[in-house]
Amino acid sequence: MPTPSDMEAALSLERFARYVIWAENDRERALALYELNARLSESLYIPLQILEVALRNRIHERMSKLHGKGWFEVDDLLKAPNQREQVATAIEDLAREGKGPTPGRVVAALSFSFWTAMFSPAYENLWREGLVEIALRSDGKRLARKDFSRRLNPVRILRNRVAHHEPILHWDLARHHAAIYEVTRWLSPIAAEWAARIDRFPSVLPAGGYVLADVDAAASEE
Fold it and tell me: Taking a C-beta distance cutoff of 8 angstroms, is the pair 94, 106 a contact?
């Protein structure tokens, strides 16, 4: 069984230091917090994955109706920084793999940041002109672009932290988990229902919560 010292050496002092701070220099507890962070990150994969797939599919479906299946290559349609570069990179990567740049393949290769950028202020006109049709509230009412951006920006950051194996314990994970499902239900109630059936997050999150010491100091290291 690896000891805290073994794991500290394996993970690097810098990476493990956050957990040592939270555990008030108790290495055993720091390792337990690291393990909890890993389990929670793993459990968030399914709801994050379903949200991302539902988001890109609904946007692609609607944009295809508005501007054709190759909408992501229409001149001046992409407004946010780096989106056009992301499309070019996706097409180049497909070419290196010997695959044709079909709309479906390009869409699948684009990052979550590409899709969340579609809710930036630069897309306000496009949203009002038709992108608004991608989702509905549970009461059947339409949503504003800002309804999405307010929820998706924190989710995007959380997703990136999970993807890069970063600490997430200092986040209000229950609140973000709820936000993920709220947006997913707007896009596809069926997808949200499916994800909830196999979602392990509620059982992994400690029912009694957990205590982290000196959270402000740790957060300042971001």
Answer: yes
Alpha-carbon span 21 to 91, nearest angstrom: 44
Contact at 8 Å (CB) between 191 and 184? yes
Displacement of CA 73 from its chain's centroid (Å)? 24
| Cβ contact 167:161 at 8 Å | yes
* C-alpha span between 49 and 184 (Å, rounded): 10
DSSP notation for 107-122 = HHHS-HHHHHGGGSGG
The answer to whether 35 touches 27, Cβ cutoff 8 Å, is: no
Residue whose pair of structure tokens reads 């780096």 in the numeric block: 82
| pLDDT tens digits along 78-100 | 998 799 999 999 999 999 999 99
Angle at 36 between CA 10 and CA 13, to 5 degrees: 30
End-to-end CA distance of the chain: 31
52-72 tens-digit pLDDT: 999 999 999 999 999 999 999
Nearby residues of 120 by Cβ (< 8 Å), 6 or more positions away: 79, 80, 149
How far is Cα 110 from Cα 71, in angstroms, rounded to an integer? 13
Q: Which residues, 6 or more positions from 129, have their beta carbon under 8 angstroms from its beta carbon?
A: 66
Task: State the Cα–Cα distance between residues 159 and 45, nearest whole angstrom.
Answer: 8
Token pair listed for 122: 């630069």
Global confidence as pTM: 0.89
Instruction: Using DSSP, state whether 190 is helix, strand or coil.
Output: helix
Q: How many other β-carbons are positioned within 10 Å of the β-carbon of residue 95?
A: 11
